[in-house]
Amino acid sequence: LRGFFDTEKLMIMLVGNKSDLDHRREVSMEEAKSFAEKEKLLFIETSALDATNVEECFTNVLTQIYNDVTSP
């Protein structure tokens, strides 16, 4: 995406889904967080099954976009 868009205006969130299946995890939370930080991505883990962090995922993205748009 960054190769096609102005990165100053691009909001990307890395979402780890199926957090309810921790026993089948292939990427550690620490590894995902580290990757997100390195690539300057927002990061959250969610579970669509039990709705863990689903609303927060959208709230975080929208809050960040709002903050970016309203900051001088």
CATH second-level architecture: 3-Layer(aba) Sandwich
Evaluate the radius of gyration: 14 Å
Q: Give average pLDDT, whole number.
A: 90
The CATH topology annotation reads as Rossmann fold
The total count of strands amounts to: 2
- The oligomeric state is single chain
Largest sheet: 2 strands, parallel
> Level of helix content?
25-40%
Number of H- or I-type helical stretches: 2
CATH class: Alpha Beta
Number of spatially distinct domains: 1
Please report which band the strand proportion falls in: under 5%, 5-15%, 15-25%, 25-35%, 35-45% or over 45%. Answer: 5-15%
CATH superfamily: P-loop containing nucleotide triphosphate hydrolases
- Secondary structural class: alpha+beta
Backbone shape: globular
Sequence of secondary-structure elements? EHEH
Q: Segments where pLDDT lies below 50 for 5+ residues?
A: none
- Our measurement of the CA-to-CA distance between the termini, rounded to an integer number of angstroms, reads 25 Å
Question: Order of strands across the widest beta sheet?
Answer: 1-2
Note down, in words, how this protein is organized:
With 72 residues, this protein is α+β, with helices and mostly antiparallel strands. It has a single domain (7-70), classed as Rossmann fold (3-Layer(aba) Sandwich). It is 39% helix and 11% strand. The chain has two helices and two strands. It has helices at 29-39, 54-70, and strands spanning 13-16, 42-45. A two-stranded parallel sheet has the order 1-2. Helix 1 (29-39) links the parallel strand 1 (13-16) and strand 2. It is globular. The mean pLDDT is 90. This is Small GTPase. It holds the Pfam family Ras. InterPro entries: Rab_GTPases_membrane_traffic (IPR050209), Small_GTPase (IPR001806). GO terms for molecular function: GTP binding; GTPase activity.
